[in-house]
Amino acid sequence: MRSLSVAAAIFAVVFSTQLINSILAAPSPTAAEPQRRNPSADFIRTSCKSTMYPMRCYRTLSPYASEIGSDPKKLAMKALNVTLKVTKSASKLMKRMSRIPGVPAALADCVEEVEDAVDELGKSIGEMGGAPAQGPEFCRMIGDVQTWVSAAETDDDTCTDGFEEVPTVSPGVKRNVKKIVEKHVGRIARFTSNALALVNLYASSSSRSRHVKC
């Protein structure tokens, strides 16, 4: 039992390291930049106010300010790409955890949920990155993206549900694994929530500029 707990703790440390590295892989602004007015950073800060987690949103996306500019589509795409990267890291670690002896079978269901989220986020990025859509076609495109990202968010939220019904045959293992999963799946759920909010913001701003009502 002790060895299993240690193994779970090791995976938690590895997972945290991978997740942080994936998020912080982008170059950070230079020390002089915060002293100057940066319209792109202001745009990101203002846009992030539409999300559930605005500080996380700004910290994650502000390093890409020069790339994003003041383009709501580029902002939404970057948010989706960062979310996909984080979700893929979570998926890989959870697959490794699922092979630890004594880990609740509910983790396998959670792995499937996160894999589905990876697939749905990938579809969203592919759809938004395609040829510019016009009129009703834009509404169809953005509707598909919103549906997929919403589904990914649901997958994240329901990932740990199965742990509540796991028999307490190995309570220590269950407790450690559940704690790790809840912590990190909760984190990717927050990234997904922010990405969806920015997709919705892009949808509303584009609908106005295109004079279409979706």
From TrEMBL:
InterPro entries: Invertase/methylesterase_inhib, Pectinesterase_inhib_dom, PME_Inhibitor. CDD domains: PMEI-like_3 (cd15798). SMART domains: PMEI. It comes from the Eukaryota. Residues 39-198 form the Pectinesterase inhibitor domain. Gene3D superfamilies: Invertase/pectin methylesterase inhibitor family protein. Keywords: Signal. The keyword Membrane does not apply. The keyword Signal applies. Residues 1-25 form the signal peptide. One of its GO terms (molecular function) is enzyme inhibitor activity. Belongs to the PMEI family. This is Pectinesterase inhibitor domain-containing protein. It comes from Linum tenue.
